[in-house]
Amino acid sequence: MSIMEIIGGILLLIGSIFLFLGGLGIFRMPDVYNRLQAGTKATTLGGMSLILGVGFLEPSWIFKTLIIIIFIAYSNPISSHALARAMYRRGHLPLIKGGYKKEMDAYSEVEQPQKEEVKS
Amino acid sequence: MTYIIYIAFIFMALGLVFAAIRFVKGPTAGDRTVALDTITTIGVSGLTLLAYVFQRFIYVDVALVYAVLGFIGVIVIARYLEGAL
After folding, report:
1. N or C terminus of chain A with fewer C-beta within 10 Å?
2. For the whole model, what pTM was predicted?
3. Residue from B19, B5, B79 nearest A79 by CA
C-alpha cells in the first residue's frame, strides 16, 4: 500500500462514520431545528471527507471530485438555511427548555409568526 | 483496502436506513425534507465510492448531477413551504 492509499482509506473511514452519525442524528433529535443541525453539518463533513478520500485513492479523478466537494460545501448550508427560514415562517417555534420566550428570539421584532398546531 | 470499503458501505447503509425511517414517520413536512437532504448527500457519496469500486469515471458525473438536482429540489420545497412559490 502506498501513502496515498493509506490517506484515502483513513478519509474514507472518517467520512462514512460522519455520514452514519448524520443519519442517527436525524433519527434521534426531538425538533426540526435540531434535526437540521445534526443532519446537515455532520453530513457535509462526511460527504466532503469521503469524496476527498476517493480523490486520494484515484489521483487522476481529483479535479472532478474537487468540483463535487466545492458544490457540497456551498449548497448544503444554503439548503439548510432556506429550510430553517421556511419552517420558522410557517410558525414552528424552536424547542427551548423552560418554555418559549419572545426576548430570546432575534427575529421577533421583524415579524410575528402565528402559532400553528403541528400537523400529523 | 477491500475491508475498509466494506466498512464504509455498512456505515453509509445504516445512516441511510435511519434517515429513511425519519422520512417515513416524520411529523411535519420539514422533517421529511431534512431527511431527503440527508439521503441525497449520502447517495452522492455512495455513487462516488461506487465509481471507485467499479472503476467507472462516468459515475462521478452522475453523482455531480444528482447533487445539483437534490439541491434544487430542497430549495424548491423550502420555498413552497414558506408560501413564496
Report:
1. C
2. 0.85
3. B79
